[in-house]
Design brief:
The chain has 384 residues and is α/β, with parallel strands linked by helices. It has 11 helices and 12 strands. The strands form 2 sheets. Strands 1-2-3-4-5-8-9-10-11-12 form a 10-stranded mixed beta sheet, with helices on one face. Strands 6-7 form a two-stranded antiparallel sheet. Strand 2 and strand 3 form a beta hairpin. Bound molecules: S-adenosyl-L-homocysteine and iron/sulfur cluster (SF4).
Length: 384
């Protein structure tokens, strides 16, 4: 990587305005075929376009060299291939890259790539803001503005590939960007239809070709929707547990009042593969004096023993005005020891990109929405 700096780089292009052409990114194969048919284009074009857009990552119809020029010009008149625009790119001294992305309506979301020795995980947002108000999370202080569309969700991963020049889709073992974690802004299960559509596009083997083993969806515990993640997507599941008693979890993750720990763990135990090969990850943020005692660690073991689980201990990442402090390193390691001794793997997640506020729970954009018009009915729209 060249310039290693935490200085934001602004590379904003003008917004696309008054352009009513539909975006081809974000459509399922069937929808793409149907849209082409509406305009008298042959069904086989859908496969060709899919390959150019998601395998080669092209952004212009003119680059689709296997399609005759006249057809390319017609496609150009009718449609666009549009990703979110990069408003600001920041690079952490540790190699993490964070993009502030501007959407067609001017709203903004953040997306982060966390490179590691043998892989890179792109942390993708599902909503602008979040309706939930977890008291330790920066995103939770930003009221929900809106759900992201499938194009805006899969588009975040495509922007990351653009940034690393990782097109056409490389073979799996050589990728710098090898994984998607739905751990950015928002609660993915409150926008499950769009998240599922985007992930199905990312998993299509004629395109971005990420296997389901390389995708992890993290939820704060929207219990009634967890079975759908298993049956429709079968990706890895991560659950933001963060506390071992309902009293504490009610404060940290207020949605716990609706679906308390016992109900949540029942849904986890029923997740496909949870009982054998595939382990569910339980995220546990380390908050000084709140959830980090030896007794908490022992209770965590007791709760998770019946489930095929691993624990991810996340040192609390501070943000301006946060009402918590991170547990000391000694405390975190003692906690990890007890959990390990109880037979659960409990790696401590090294904080990445803290200098650019790109670490877990630090994401937040300036997009706001008038409180009166704030969406209060996400649950209704999520079918709950
Ligand atoms: N909304 C989803 C996914 C996004 S958050 C969810 O809550 O699971 C990704 C992870 O970071 C979650 O486990 C979240 O609880 C955790 N997190 C939030 N704020 C944090 C902070 N300040 N420090 C460390 N982890 C945090
Ligand atoms: Fe929303 Fe997840 Fe943050 Fe809770 S932790 S406020 S669910 S983004």
């Amino acid at each position: 990587m060249s310039a290693l700096s935490a200085e934001p780089v602004s590379i904003l292009e003008p917004l696309r305005r008054n352009d009513l052409r539909p975006n081809l990114i974000g459509l399922s194969r069937a929808e793409l075929k149907a849209l082409l048919a509406e305009h008298g284009l042959e069904p086989f074009r859908a496969g060709q376009i899919w390959h150019w857009v998601y395998w080669h990552g092209v952004r212009q119809f003119a680059a689709m060299s296997t399609i005759a020029r006249a057809t390319r010009e017609r496609l150009e008149e009718l449609f666009v291939i549009e990703r979110p625009q990069i408003a600001v790119e920041q690079r952490s001294v540790d190699g993490t890259r964070k993009w502030l992305l501007r959407l067609a309506d001017g709203n903004e979301v953040e997306c982060v790539n966390i490179p590691e020795a043998d892989r890179g995980s792109v942390c993708v947002s599902s909503q602008v803001g979040c309706t939930l108000t977890c008291s330790f999370c920066h995103t939770g202080t930003q009221p929900l503005v809106r759900n992201l569309t499938p194009a805006e969700i899969v588009g975040q991963f495509m922007v990351a590939r653009d940034s690393y020049g990782e097109w056409p889709t490389p073979i799996e073992t050589t990728r710098m960007l090898s994984n998607i974690v739905m751990m950015g802004m928002g609660e993915p299960l409150y926008n499950l239809d769009n998240v599922a559509k985007a992930l199905r596009i990312a998993m299509d083997d004629q395109g971005i070709a990420l296997s389901k083993r390389r995708i992890t969806l993290s939820t704060s515990g929207i219990v009634p929707l967890i079975p759908r993640v298993g049956s429709e997507l079968d990706v890895n599941l991560a659950v933001s547990l963060h506390a071992v008693t309902d009293d504490v979890r009610d404060v940290l993750v207020p949605v716990n009042r609706k679906w308390p720990i016992a109900t949540l763990l029942e849904a986890c135990a029923a997740y496909p593969g949870a009982k054998n090969s595939r382990r569910i990850t339980f995220e546990y943020v380390m908050l000084k004096g709140v959830n980090d005692s030896d007794a908490d660690a022992r209770e965590l073991v007791r709760l998770l023993k019946p489930i095929h689980a691993k624990v991810n201990l996340i040192p609390f990442n501070p943000w301006p005005g946060a009402p918590y402090e991170c547990s000391s390193n000694n405390r975190i390691h003692r906690f990890a020891e007890i959990v390990n001794a109880g037979g659960l793997s409990a790696p401590v997640r090294t904080p990445r990109g803290r200098d650019i506020l790109a670490a877990c729970g630090q994401l937040k954009s300036e997009s706001t929405r008038d409180r009166r018009t704030r969406v209060r009915d996400v649950e209704a729209r999520a079918g709950l």
